[in-house]
Inverse folding.
DNA sequence: CGTTCCTTTGAAACCAATCAATAATGGTGG
DNA sequence: CCACCATTATTGATTGGTTTCAAAGGAACG
């Protein structure tokens, strides 16, 4: 409880100095509770802050004029949400809580101060942004070039490996908190087809479902069909400037 | 010719100080010519530098084990290529020149020095990364939720608006330098289907092709079918720290 | 001027969307 | 605690879009 959620997150990658910890701890101050389904920011709203997930999970999406929706990113405890929007005056995506969530809110201007005073943290922020880029690229690859089952496998693996980073005790199973409509909106198929894909993968004994719990039975096959690479293992921090 | 390609690019967004210009000009030193088709870096190679495009164009892609390929990003003069890879020890994508190209090469460690000494440039680097993030999100949205013609329209518009940033005299037409196989690899359809999509859009009088020149006849319709938003107009630099 | 790469076109097979109806699940208040 | 309602998931039949396979026509290049 002593370290802020930023500190916890960043300590995964760097041995933070006291000065760096202090700089990050400032942003613990503005923590706020959100309810499941609550909209954190809407596409087009003023993009004036970042959100770090302390507990719960959320997703960023774009609504299309034809009534459909594309889910772009899913955020879990330890993630920083709203990074893409910060480059613009207005938010490029809508962020919605999937569950009750506790978020730390970091004003844009305060991020500017971090860039001013803590070059090594800035470089890490940059890397986290690039990690998000690679996640998007991987899903783009999956949507463009995988079969239906491969797309679903890719999302399952993305969530599984993502959760394992901060929750090392999960072993081949996790709570799938997305509805099948959400899953479809993430991988670009209809909710009806998601149901059929789950059915097929279950009958092939690749996965098993018990309520909302999803068991991964054949990890290797899922990896193959999704052309999956785990990106969450290591960042290269060797080029970062010295800490202050 | 007096300003480096970095300076030219960054001056679009900020009034650079002399100190900042000097810092950026260092990276002009390592300029290199690449031939069309030449591989700049390969997925898995050591990710030790960034590439700024002085002339020509290139693309980043992932090869899949089933023999297919997904094109992730297209880079034009003024763009910085290889940003996502820099967060990792090894490149997350393959970068290939589409045409003969002149690239400025910026070692990772030198980027670290920028972060150390020029906080405002670091913030701008961050924003450029987030701009790339949004470009990926937009294409993800297109792949997941648009019709075939919408996907092609989206790519056409992405290239068109991207080229207009640095080349303000182009007016509703440009040279499409990608082959139909490349286009298919970017929007997630087969080359055969790209040909048919072009045919359909031409017969609807949305576009016209003369050799490699592509004329946009009905911009509004393309925008509607691709659910397109122009992201290249403005970055919000209000939160940046003061220059040095 | 021939070879290679790129584009176009056709027919068949396949995958996913749509429309529609039913079943299961979860949450709420009586 | 159960009944009810809303949401979510499943299943079937049909339609439509895309891939695949195959072949031929065009364009670019040495």
């Amino acid at each position: 409880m002593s370290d802020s959620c930023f500190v916890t997150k960043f300590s995964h990658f760097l041995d933070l100095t006291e000065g760096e910890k202090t700089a990050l701890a400032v942003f613990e101050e503005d923590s706020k509770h959100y309810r499941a389904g609550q909209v954190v920011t809407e596409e087009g709203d003023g993009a004036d802050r970042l959100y770090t997930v302390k507990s719960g999970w959320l997703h960023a999406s774009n609504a299309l004029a034809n009534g459909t929706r594309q889910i772009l990113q899913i955020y879990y405890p330890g993630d920083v949400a709203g990074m893409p929007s910060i480059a613009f005056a207005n938010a490029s995506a809508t962020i919605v809580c999937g569950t009750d969530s506790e978020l730390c809110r970091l004003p844009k201007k305060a991020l500017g101060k971090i860039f001013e005073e803590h070059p090594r943290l800035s470089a890490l922020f940059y890397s986290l942004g690039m990690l998000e880029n690679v996640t998007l690229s991987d899903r783009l690859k999956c949507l463009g070039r995988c079969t239906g089952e491969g797309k679903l496998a890719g999302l399952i693996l993305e969530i599984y490996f993502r959760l394992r980073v901060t929750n090392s005790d999960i072993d081949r199973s996790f709570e799938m908190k997305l509805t099948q409509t959400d899953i479809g909106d993430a991988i670009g198929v209809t909710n009806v087809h998601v149901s059929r894909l789950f059915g097929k993968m279950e009958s092939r004994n690749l996965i098993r479902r018990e309520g909302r719990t999803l068991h991964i039975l054949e990890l290797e096959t899922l990896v193959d069909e999704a052309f999956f690479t785990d990106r969450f293992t290591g960042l290269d921090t060797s080029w970062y400037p010295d800490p202050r």
